[in-house]
Write a structure and sequence with these properties.
Beta-lactamase Inhibitory Protein, Chain:B, domain 1, alpha+beta, about 120 residues, single chain
């Protein structure tokens, strides 16, 4: 009976400790962000540079908000918190041109090299 309990605990530890890498979306690097120029870039050019957005929202003003997201999480050890990196870029488009955009990044023990 003791052996069964010990084996169950070991299986549980290895199951939790060997978690998968989770990835969602495409990374938004600094070179792509620098190409987005307010008032000059069209909707088609935004899609060409960044790809299809994860989500498109219609705003009450008639403008659109293109939302790009990237998330990656890696489990390294069962006794530590996972590393993660999250990026979110919102591009506000009105009359076919980029009016504004926001960019947010959050991470714990950054997975990839830092791009400014």
């Amino acid at each position: 009976m003791r052996y069964i309990g010990l084996i169950a605990i070991l299986l549980l530890v290895f199951t939790i400790g060997c978690g998968p890498t989770i990835m969602e979306g495409k990374r938004i690097d600094a070179a792509k962000r620098s190409q987005i120029i307010k008032g000059q870039i069209t909707t088609a050019k935004v899609v060409e540079i960044l790809g299809q957005p994860a989500k498109i929202e219609k705003l009450p003003s008639g403008a659109e908000k293109y939302i790009y997201q990237y998330y990656k999480e890696e489990f390294t050890h069962w006794w530590t918190l996972p590393k993660f990196e999250r990026q979110r870029m919102e591009v506000f488009i009105s009359n076919g041109l980029v009016q504004d955009y926001t960019y947010q990044v959050e991470s714990r023990d950054r997975i990839t090299e830092k791009d400014e």
